[in-house]
Amino acid sequence: xxxxxxxxxxxxxxxxxxxxxxxxxxxxxxxxxxxxxxxxxxxxxxxxxxxxxxxxxxxxxxxxxxxxxxxxxxxxxxxxxxxxxxxxxxxxxxxxxxxxxxxxxxxxxxxxxxxxxxxxxxxxxxxxxxxxxxxxxxxxxxxxxxxxxxxxxxxxxxxxxxxxxxxxxxxxxxxxxxxxxxxxxxxxxxxxxxxxxxxxxxxxxxxxxxxxxxxxxxxxxxxxxxxxxxxxxxxxxxxxxxxxxx
Length: 246
What we know:
Elements lengths: L8 H14 L12 H8 L3 H13 L3 E4 L3 E4 L8 E4 L2 E3 L5 E3 L6 E2 L4 E6 L2 H7 L6 E11 L4 E10 H4 L14 H8 L5 E9 L3 H7 L7 E9 L5 E10 L3 E4 L3
Parallel strand pairs: 3-13
Antiparallel strand pairs: 1-2, 4-5, 6-8, 7-8, 8-9, 9-12, 10-11, 11-12
Helix pairs in contact: 1-3, 2-3
């Protein structure tokens, strides 16, 4: 009978910590040994320790807090990132996000003409297949620590008879001011859902294995509740809490 293959070191570390969490050696909300201590204990490099910790994060047992270390996840633990949601208009006419974060495109946004798929056509109340202007961008904030994928859709039918009939309108949030200049009173509705990210989304957002994607769909409407535009925000869902005023 062939000998059993030795378990990889990172899996040994993950199993050691998993057992300690389950038997109460490491209580919920308490810190785990540091990467340096675990590296010395198992005679491995710190990247190997991080690989073991990644398995525990993927299973929801451990959370890593920037600048504080690794902790056993508690059901009462609050995420380290709080994102108030909403849009407000400044006295100078600019529209800004309620979270106050300054998002910048990590590269030039891609502007394309697309046809509305059924799900988006339903949100925008337009016929499936209607052409739309689409802006795509990977955005970062807080010196690159925060990342999101942002896509803006504007149906052609909204732009008929305007200066944007032949040229792409700006992407949000500059789009809001452009729509206001066209005489629209703006209102917003958001829809939240979670799912597992596609491989390219996980790579762009640096999402670890097992972590879901938070998807926010924001519809911009006029005073008659007619949809004017749709935005799609995609963010890592592992250390994020969303708040809304009611």
